[in-house]
Specification:
434 Repressor (Amino-terminal Domain); six-stranded parallel sheet; elongated
């Protein structure tokens, strides 16, 4: 077959010529866009489309010793990936952020000690350049093992097992206080809380915020713990009604648990919000489509995942990063 039958693949230098920049600038754009002006990046992106350039990631990995990928690590049972849409939102945001850098995201689920051991071995073998840890429990040893092995790791939420690890979080305490203050401002006095597991940042610090805002009116008898699953919200609400039938509002530490609480209230013949107001936390999509739509605290999911990607890439490149706290917002809908 003649050589003409094999068109030459465009190179970085071809892209640079079309974009009117140096090939070093093109290389920086392809490898994450650091230290490149928005104008130069736009010119390079347009030139890549025009020339049809595609990076040879295998060759680049051999040359740099990097895998050109990050791990999205969920240390929860597998079914929660599909049952809780917050993880899907973080996964989508991280995938988008890496796709813009021509990098890939590897999904790893490690909900059991055996799975965690396998994941730790996989990550330490260099199959990924860094880890986005999107769930963690205080008792988990995996995070400490990754840090000890020098694996660049960034957490979603404050990692209770190792607070020095860079993380992207929201102000859990202030957010819970704002929702509690809103419910009290609506005239509710017997406000119950369905909190998450105490060994997770959301479970621990949302309880702190609720307790602080309730002040002297805080009643530990109106607090039940759930597991962020819908069934746990249902069960927690059932227990609360049995011992405190005069509740006039409930704040659930996740939208999923709030939906479970509403199911229990309906079985008990309670109207929402006429008899009992209900509020959640997350605004991951479920709150908006629920009937009735759920009052909740909105977390900035896209900003969280994009910031995590930026942060772990900086850590990989040797640029130290401080942890980031992002703002939430109160979303008022029909349940409260």
């Amino acid at each position: 077959m003649a050589a003409a039958d094999h068109p030459r693949k465009p190179t970085i230098r071809d892209v640079a010529a079309v974009a009117g920049v140096s090939h070093g600038t093109v290389s920086r754009v392809i490898n994450g866009g650091h230290w490149v002006s928005p104008e130069a990046r736009a010119a390079v992106d347009a030139a890549i489309l025009e020339t049809g350039y595609t990076a040879n990631h295998a060759a680049r990995s051999l040359a740099t010793g990097r895998a050109n990928s990050l791990a999205f690590l969920l240390t929860e049972p597998q079914h929660l990936l599909f049952a809780d849409s917050t993880y899907a939102l973080l996964l989508r945001g991280a995938t988008e952020a890496l796709a813009a850098r021509s990098m890939t995201l590897v999904l790893l689920i490690a909900g059991t000690p055996e799975e965690q051991a396998t994941v730790e071995q996989y990550v330490r073998a260099g199959h990924v350049d860094g880890v986005l840890l999107v769930s963690s429990h205080e008792s988990d040893s995996l995070l400490a093992s990754l840090v000890a092995a020098g694996v660049p790791t960034v957490c979603a939420g404050i990692p209770l097992a190792a607070e020095a690890v860079p993380h992207v979080s929201v102000d859990e305490v202030a957010s819970a206080r704002e929702m509690t203050r809103y419910l009290r401002g609506r005239g509710h006095r017997r406000i119950a809380l369905i909190t998450g597991p105490n060994d997770t940042p959301g479970g621990r610090f949302r309880l702190v915020g609720f307790q602080e805002e309730m002040g002297d009116a805080f009643d530990p008898n109106l607090v039940e713990q759930g597991s962020y699953e819908q069934s746990s919200g249902d069960a927690a609400m059932t227990r609360l009604l049995e011992r405190a039938p005069d509740i006039d509002a409930v704040f659930a530490a996740s939208d999923v648990m709030a939906v479970g609480a509403i199911a229990a209230l309906r079985r008990a013949g309670k109207r929402v919000p006429e008899d009992i107001a209900v509020a959640g936390f997350d605004d991951s999509g479920l709150a908006e489509i629920h009937d009735p739509p759920l009052t909740t605290v909105r977390q900035p999911w896209t900003d969280i995942s994009h910031t995590m990607v930026d942060m772990v890439l900086d850590v990989i490149a040797g640029r130290p990063r401080e942890s980031v706290v992002l703002p939430t917002s109160l979303v008022v809908r029909e349940t409260a």
